[in-house]
């Protein structure tokens, strides 16, 4: 029993270690130069694509890209509680939920116009609607294995992170020019910007009050990740070909996410444990996205083409207009 585990650990270690080193480099660039860590991780990983083909490192890189990803997503559950949802109020809560669902539905509808299938549309729509790179990786992990799956995931992570960074810069200017109140600005920023880090950056660049509210709204969007992934897994399982590998009825990382969110709602997770889980989640996701970068061929990534970029831009603009319209209707 011990010997096989030790042998597997020895096989996985080199690849995981390299993914970890890339994650550390990405975090360094984030802390010292303000570069988005997720974007840096995947960009630094991509030139190391040859390592994913090496016998000594390939297995560990594949493990990091899939298993560490799921660990990181599952641990996001410690940041969620029922109390957070109650603080927002029913009208804005419904707006946030509808924003996620309608954006995903819109993405599925327009995919064909950009020459993309429904799986790609769901991947990009979920990333835009929920929580950027983390959502892309979670959704990508339950999609059926297919050609170009890793290329599409890497493309989505890169594009959605760039768009999220642009939104962090320009959305506060937009809300100021529109004359939105601090509360409305917080709801808009949290309800539209893709990644949590960029929401925090945009919100607190305006005021502490706006930063707190935008972060709360963003984390409520994050709570949508588990049910969306669960429903998608059930649909994909039902529609899979007879005899083919079928997704599990309830992915284990979704169960873990929901359990942790429930425990946190009842105050059963100590602050020190929540802080530790948050750090582990961040590093697991950074290492996972670095590994995704290492599994991505740059020439193949370029094959995705301009229409796919415009598709994500369209999804992003749709979500912004939807949330802005909802804020004006609610008043």
Describe the structure.
This protein has about 325 residues and is mainly α. It has one domain. About 80% of the residues lie in helices and about 0% in strands. Helix 8 runs antiparallel to helix 15. It comes from Roseibium aggregatum. Keywords: Cell membrane, Membrane, Transmembrane, Transmembrane helix. It is found in: Cell membrane. Pfam families: Cons_hypoth698.
Features of the shown structure:
single chain, 331 residues, mainly alpha, 80% helix, globular
Helicity range: over 70%
Shape: globular
Count the E strands. Answer: 0
Helices, by number, come to: 15
| Sheet with the most strands, sense and barrel status | none
Spans of at least 5 consecutive residues whose pLDDT stays below 50 are none
Please, how many domains? 1
What is the rounded distance between the termini?
A: 63 Å
Assign the structural class, choosing from mainly alpha, mainly beta, alpha/beta, alpha+beta, or little secondary structure.
mainly alpha
Strand content: under 5%
Overall pLDDT level = 86
H/E order of the elements? HHHHHHHHHHHHHHH
> Whole-number radius of gyration?
19 Å
Compact overview of the structure:
It holds the Pfam family Cons_hypoth698. With 331 residues, the protein is mainly α.
Could you give the topology of this structure?
Blueprint: H1 2-33, H2 37-45, H3 55-75, H4 82-88, H5 90-110, H6 118-140, H7 149-178, H8 182-192, H9 196-206, H10 208-223, H11 225-239, H12 252-265, H13 271-294, H14 298-302, H15 306-330
Helix pairs in contact: 1-2, 1-3, 1-13, 2-7, 2-13, 3-12, 3-13, 5-6, 5-15, 6-7, 6-10, 6-11, 6-15, 7-9, 7-15, 8-9, 8-10, 8-15, 9-10, 11-12
Membrane topology: Multi-pass membrane protein
Subcellular location: Cell membrane
Transmembrane segments: 12-29, 35-51, 88-110, 122-143, 155-174, 186-207, 219-236, 248-268, 280-298, 310-330
């Amino acid at each position: 029993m011990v010997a096989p585990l030790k042998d597997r650990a020895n096989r996985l270690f080199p690849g995981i270690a390299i993914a970890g080193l890339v994650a550390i480099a990405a975090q360094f660039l984030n802390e010292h130069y303000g570069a988005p860590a997720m974007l840096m991780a995947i960009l630094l990983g991509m030139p190391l694509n040859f390592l994913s083909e090496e016998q000594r490192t390939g297995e560990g890189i594949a493990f990091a890209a899939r298993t560490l990803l799921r660990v990181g997503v599952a641990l996001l559950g410690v940041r969620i509680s029922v109390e957070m949802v109650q603080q927002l109020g029913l009208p804005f809560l419904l707006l946030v939920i509808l924003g996620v669902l309608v954006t995903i539905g819109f993405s599925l509808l327009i995919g064909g116009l950009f020459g993309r299938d429904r799986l790609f549309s769901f991947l990009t729509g979920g990333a835009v609607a929920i929580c950027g790179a983390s959502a892309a990786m979670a959704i990508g992990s339950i999609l059926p294995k297919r050609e170009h799956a890793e290329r599409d995931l890497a493309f989505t992570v890169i594009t959605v992170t760039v768009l999220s960074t642009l939104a962090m810069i320009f959305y506060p200017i937009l809300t100021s020019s529109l004359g939105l109140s601090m509360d409305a600005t917080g709801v808009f920023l949290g309800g539209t910007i893709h990644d949590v880090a960029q929401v925090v950056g945009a919100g607190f660049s305006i005021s502490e009050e706006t930063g707190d509210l935008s972060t709360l709204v963003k984390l409520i969007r994050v709570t949508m990740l588990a049910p969306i992934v669960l429903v998608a897994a059930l649909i994909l399982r039902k529609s899979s070909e007879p005899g083919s590998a079928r997704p599990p009825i309830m992915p284990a990382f979704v169960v873990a996410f929901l359990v942790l969110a429930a425990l946190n709602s009842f105050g059963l997770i100590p602050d020190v444990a929540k802080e530790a889980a948050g750090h582990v989640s961040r590093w697991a996701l950074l290492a996972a996205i670095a590994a995704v970068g290492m599994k991505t061929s740059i020439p193949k990534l370029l094959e995705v083409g301009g229409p796919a970029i415009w598709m994500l831009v369209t999804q992003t603009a749709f979500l912004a207009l939807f949330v802005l319209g909802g804020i004006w209707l609610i008043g």
